[in-house]
């Protein structure tokens, strides 16, 4: 980043706008926030500001320490997390997870390409370009190469590529991955068309089953699809298929997409006010809220294909041992389970006021009420809360 002329030029302009005293005060404030977990209890108030993804059941100082360590040594923490896959021997990898994950990613990519064909805000030329972008997405995951030497070379090459930029670039964010540990953070880099899949997204499945069974799909895959949707929506409209900084959406497409965003913006603001009695900024987690909705269509498609391929079960089949559930009902149940959180008014207010996340109740209920197949599966009457007359939809 230091060698990036664009970054240095913009930084110099910003430094001229503020006095030395203001800059030093800001620097001190940032240091207190970043290292609050190592300081005296008098600055405990700063710890929630030092990281995202607050977990209620984990001590605050421990959370802050782990996130600080990962910020300082991301690759080291990534390797430690990867070693937890084999419960019997930490130094012996379990390669079957890699094979199954790669098969799953193939289904995800193909389903997303098919879904994008229905994007009504894009012209046909833009739809074709978006499909090509999805085809060229490079996945970066906690699964290293089988060969130790090749794995080391890739790690070294990625580090050199991302941290020592030798040519001018408009990518001013030098992070490689934000976190390997948290479940929610699947990060898409528009300038590189790269999707980072964190260890935390799939590690819990390792403690339940030795394989990625289809019922895991509604729990694991939504995060991957949300990250991939960033290659489809306005966040990638400034980076073309060659990963160049170019505005490749037409003004018509931008206008159509903005009108759809407005629908979601109004809907979430109303839901937030009704549930938590708080007013939020207009763009409060707007891109994330929107992404939660369109991923249900390809997610449901992937689940049905996987269920048919591995279990030869049709969509209306009853689940063995669970006589009250069809395979589609199991899909929605597991999708909701993937967002499980304690029902607490104060916890939800904290998540919003600290701008940490959207409460799980809204992340589940709003997307599925916007997805017609939920009402069809559970036979919800029209004009009821989960089967409204009008919906906010993208596809």
TrEMBL record:
Coiled coil: none annotated. GO terms for biological process: protein processing. Gene3D superfamilies: Collagenase (Catalytic Domain), Neutral endopeptidase , domain2. InterPro entries: MetalloPept_cat_dom_sf (IPR024079), Peptidase_M13 (IPR000718), Peptidase_M13_C (IPR018497), Peptidase_M13_dom_2 (IPR042089). PANTHER family: GH26575P-RELATED, ZINC METALLOPROTEASE FAMILY M13 NEPRILYSIN-RELATED. PROSITE patterns: NEPRILYSIN. Residues 243-394 form the Peptidase M13 C-terminal domain. One of its GO terms (cellular component) is plasma membrane. GO terms for molecular function: metalloendopeptidase activity. This is Peptidase M13 C-terminal domain-containing protein.
């Amino acid at each position: 980043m230091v060698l990036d002329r664009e970054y240095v030029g913009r930084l110099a302009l910003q430094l001229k706008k503020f006095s030395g005293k203001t800059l030093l005060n800001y620097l001190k404030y940032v240091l207190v926030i970043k290292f609050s977990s190592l300081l005296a209890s008098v600055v405990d108030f700063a710890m929630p500001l030092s990281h995202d993804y607050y977990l209620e059941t984990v001590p605050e100082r421990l959370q802050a320490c782990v996130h600080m360590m990962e910020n300082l040594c991301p690759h080291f923490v990534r390797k430690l997390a990867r070693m937890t896959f084999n419960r019997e021997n930490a130094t012996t990898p379990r390669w079957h997870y890699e094979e199954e994950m790669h098969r799953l990613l193939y289904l995800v990519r193909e389903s997303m390409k098919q879904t994008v064909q229905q994007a009504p805000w894009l012209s046909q030329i833009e739809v074709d370009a978006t499909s090509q972008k999805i085809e060229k997405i490079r996945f970066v995951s906690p699964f290293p190469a089988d060969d130790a030497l090749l794995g080391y070379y890739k790690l070294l090459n990625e580090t050199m590529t991302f941290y020592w930029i030798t040519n001018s670039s408009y990518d001013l964010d030098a992070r490689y991955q934000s976190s390997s540990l948290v479940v929610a953070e699947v990060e898409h880099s528009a300038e590189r068309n790269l999707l980072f899949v964190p260890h935390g997204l799939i590690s819990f499945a390792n403690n339940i089953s030795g394989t990625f069974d289809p019922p895991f799909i509604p729990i694991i895959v939504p995060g991957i699809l949300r990250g991939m949707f960033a290659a489809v929506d306005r966040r990638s409209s400034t980076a073309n298929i060659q990963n160049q900084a170019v505005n490749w959406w037409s003004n018509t497409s931008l206008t159509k997409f903005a009108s759809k965003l407005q629908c979601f913006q109004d809907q979430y603001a109303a839901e937030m006010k009704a549930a938590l009695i708080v007013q939020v900024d207009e763009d409060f987690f707007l891109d994330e809220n929107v992404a939660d909705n369109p991923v249900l269509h390809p997610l449901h498609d992937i689940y049905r294909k996987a269920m048919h391929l591995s279990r030869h079960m049709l969509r209306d089949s009853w689940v063995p041992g669970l006589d009250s559930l069809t395979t589609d009902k199991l899909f929605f149940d597991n999708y909701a389970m993937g967002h499980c959180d304690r029902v607490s008014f104060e916890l939800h207010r904290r998540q919003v006021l600290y701008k940490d996340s959207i409460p799980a109740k809204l992340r589940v209920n709003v997307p599925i009420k916007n997805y017609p197949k939920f009402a069809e599966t559970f036979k919800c009457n029209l004009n009821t809360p989960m089967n409204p007359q009008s919906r906010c939809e993208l596809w």
